[in-house]
């Protein structure tokens, strides 16, 4: 079971828009793709709602060399207004809520989705109610509270918060943003695929680009998977572009799960679609899920694109946090770094080709989970306030 699809009229879109016309847009946010979104222009210019998306796509040459690859990119969605990928979904959901005059928007979240909703709601003056497990990192809870959301910490895990949010939304008539439930979340998340293809195209934003010029799709994309809605959303974006004829191939999508939260990977490995819940336990709280709510689509996405699932240990995730920070200056939270950990494992095992163009999706900033970042980074050196102490510690170099 998964949430519904939003069906687009591709012929109408092709009559109204083209890759060249979009690449010429001065709006560097997800709203440059309005012709491909199922909501009207939400307005609110000059607010964070209009600043979501168009995050950097960095070329990671040093990391690529270390892994024996030639073309590696990291898309850093930690640069979004509330520092996570989830701003994409929340921006579109908030736009939809304004269209239908919904006064209250609710969501269950381990932190990032809730912070994104709280931030986007604050930008337009809407009320947000967030259900989060009591174990959510304090930095994420602080974001929720600072944005003015009504925060309900549930004595239970994410799945308990999810179910309670659905019940409360039905009871009180709230508009529910829950991942894997509200189809507009996937429509926001698919914009990352649009950006990857546009940013990989050398002629993007060039006056010489012809209106019917295609964009360049990567060969593979590595995505961390919890509920499954991000990878299925990115898949929807690539499918939209392929159906429109704007890209020439479908990338292979590589799902990465933590060893302690691998329900989707287990189903994929078994050749099944049925998701068997797990007792999730991982440092990567954003992908710590017992029962992935969009799990069936997450499994289908990988299978349909000829990709694979990679399972990584928490130690691999901590190492990936260090590698991304020191090799590319990208500060990723554990869930975001999991995608790079999956790439590193896949490269070691020869699953990917050296000549492929590969994108790793970082879904959140490392400041979201300072405790995990400190575990990954190690301890600072404490010294006395003397030059001798500096010499004794680091020497003349």
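Q: What amino acid sequence fits the structure above?
A:
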């Amino acid at each position: 079971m998964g949430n519904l699809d939003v069906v687009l009229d591709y012929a109408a879109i092709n009559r109204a828009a083209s890759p060249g016309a979009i690449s010429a847009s001065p709006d560097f946010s997800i709203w440059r793709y309005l012709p491909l979104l199922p909501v009207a222009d939400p307005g609110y210019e000059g607010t964070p709602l209009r600043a979501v998306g168009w995050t950097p796509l960095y070329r990671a040459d040093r990391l690529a060399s270390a892994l024996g690859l030639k073309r590696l990119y990291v898309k850093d969605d930690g640069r979004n207004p509330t520092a996570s990928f989830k701003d994409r979904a929340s921006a579109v959901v908030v736009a939809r809520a304004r269209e239908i005059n919904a006064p209250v928007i609710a969501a269950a979240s381990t932190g990032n989705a809730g912070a994104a909703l709280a931030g986007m709601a604050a930008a337009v003056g809407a009320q947000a109610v967030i259900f989060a497990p009591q174990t959510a990192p304090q930095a994420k809870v602080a974001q929720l509270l600072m944005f003015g959301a009504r925060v309900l910490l549930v004595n239970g895990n994410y799945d308990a918060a999810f179910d309670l949010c659905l019940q409360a939304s039905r009871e009180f008539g709230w508009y529910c943003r829950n991942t894997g439930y509200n189809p507009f979340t996937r429509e926001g998340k698919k914009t990352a695929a649009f950006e990857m293809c546009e940013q990989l195209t050398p002629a993007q934003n060039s006056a010489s680009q012809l209106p019917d010029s295609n964009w360049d799709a990567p060969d593979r994309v590595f995505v961390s998977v919890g509920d499954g809605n991000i990878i299925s959303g990115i898949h929807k974006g690539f499918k939209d572009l392929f159906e429109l004829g704007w890209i020439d191939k479908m990338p292979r999508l590589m799902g990465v799960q933590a060893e302690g939260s691998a329900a989707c990977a287990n189903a994929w490995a078994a050749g099944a679609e049925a998701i068997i819940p797990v007792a999730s336990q991982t440092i990567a709280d954003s992908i710590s899920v017992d029962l992935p709510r969009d799990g069936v689509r997450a499994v289908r996405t990988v299978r349909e694109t000829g990709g694979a699932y990679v399972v990584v240990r928490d130690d691999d995730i901590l190492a990936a946090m260090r590698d991304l920070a020191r090799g590319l200056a990208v500060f990723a939270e554990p869930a975001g770094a999991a995608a790079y950990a999956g790439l590193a494992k896949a490269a070691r095992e020869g699953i990917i080709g050296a000549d492929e163009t590969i994108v790793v999706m970082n879904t959140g900033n490392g400041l979201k989970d300072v405790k995990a970042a400190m575990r990954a980074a190690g301890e600072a050196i404490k010294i006395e306030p003397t030059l001798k102490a500096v010499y004794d510690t680091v020497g003349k170099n």
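Q: And what stands out in the fold?
A: Residues 204-209 have pLDDT under 50 and may be disordered.
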